[in-house]
Amino acid sequence: MRVDGRPYRSIWLDEDGRTVVVIDQTRLPHSFATRRLHTVEDAADAIRIMVVRGAPLIGATAAYGLALALARDPSDGNLESAIALLAATRPTAVNLRWALEDLGRILRPLAAGDRAAAAYRRAGEICDEDVAINRAIGENGLALIEQAAQGRDSPVNVLTHCNAGWLAAVDWGTALAPLYMAHDKGIPVHVWVDETRPRNQGAALTAWELARHGVPHTVIVDNAGGHLMQRGMVDLCITGTDRTTARGDVCNKIGTYLKALAASDNDVPFYVALPHPTIDWSLADGADTPIEQRDEDEVLTITGRDEAGQETKVALTPAGSRAANYAFDVTPARLVTALITDRGVCDASEEGLQTLFPDRAAGAPSS
Question: Do residues 273 and 178 lie in contact, with contact meaning Cβ atoms separated by under 8 Å?
Fold first, then answer.
């Protein structure tokens, strides 16, 4: 994707071929800045404090974080300690575990001296694969938007939640990829952007992405979605997911479940876009998904730009008030119209997923 006419991915290697560079998403939308990761500790910190976020990008960053660790010390002990450090950063997004398991299988049998180069090579492959996967998701989801656009003169109104664009992946994104492709194809689309508490990832990141790409959009408070659906102002919903179970339950940013309920009550199609590494084949019931609880400061305060143009953090609540900061919720498969994957569109069910992934079954390890 492009920022002010320049093409970007969300993660790349610096000119030295070793240092990892990422877009600092904590600075958006007010400042576009990059951050260099020199150590595995840098990578873990970037994941933990959400300099990088989004399931696919978390996995890619973890892969490069492991490469950074092995470039410093390729021993067995450091390999295992680096995997443990990175695995502990975010408990919900399954791509993190998937990437670390993938690299672990490759790296453990190798001689210590060969590990760093192999880790860098595989991390680069994971990034390239993610771009191809998300492009395929976009192409598969585009057909749904084209169908919604048939026989109408007005734009297709799509509601999305959180950020599932290219900032959440290496490029293209998941839920936003079909929208970018529709816009580029000349199909009139308009996006309702949930602000997505906490951290306002919709208002800060999705709106920023769409604005840079020229896609018409309107930011709404999280609780406005049902109102819009009642009045026929939403044609379809598309969200991303950080973990999808083998039976089609989806775990996404907190508030997704409420959007799915409203969509079901108003006969609005509710789609979830996901790359196949986000499917947790070892998990059947979404209720068993570990739900991350983050620092309450993300709810009690907010960062913005004041009248003088300076970024500042202000308190939102009375002194002494506490906050519960659940980062995700689970939407049962029965509320999901269909899953948009890199292999096609399927029912949100065990049977539906196995039509696209016949080589997989509940209880099998992720791959």
Answer: yes
How far is Cα 367 from Cα 256, in angstroms, rounded to an integer?
Answer: 26
Q: Cβ contacts of residue 267 below 8 Å, gap of 6+?
A: none
Q: Residue with structure tokens 């997923």?
A: 353
Please write the tens of the pLDDT for every residue from 307-347: 998 989 999 999 999 999 999 999 999 999 999 999 999 99
Q: What is d(CA 190, CA 158) in angstroms, rounded to the nearest whole number?
A: 6
CA dihedral (9, 11, 13, 19) positive or negative: positive
pLDDT of residue 361: 55
CA quadruple 239, 240, 242, 244: dihedral positive or negative?
positive
Give the β-pairing of 279-280 and 243-245: parallel
Query: Strand, coil or helix: what is 342?
Result: coil
Sequence length of the chain is 367
For residue 363, pLDDT over 70 is answered with no
Q: What is the dihedral of CA 30, 34, 37, 41, to 10 degrees?
A: 0
Decide: 218 and 190 in contact? Cβ < 8 Å: yes
Burial level of 73, CB count in 10 A (0-12/13-18/19+)? middle
* Cα(67)–Cα(73) distance, integer angstroms: 10
Region of 4 (left: φ > 0; alpha: ψ -120 to 50; beta: rest) is left
The reported pTM is: 0.94
How far apart are alpha carbons 185 and 210 in whole angstroms? Answer: 15
H-helix or E-strand spanning residue 205 = none
Catalytic residue, chosen from 171, 242, 280, 342, is 242
Please state the three-class secondary structure of 107-125 as a single string: HCCCCHHHHHHHHHHHHHH
Q: Quick check: helix, strand or coil at residue 182?
A: helix
Active site residue 242: yes
DSSP state of 326: B
Give the integer Cα–Cα distance in Å for 139 and 336: 20
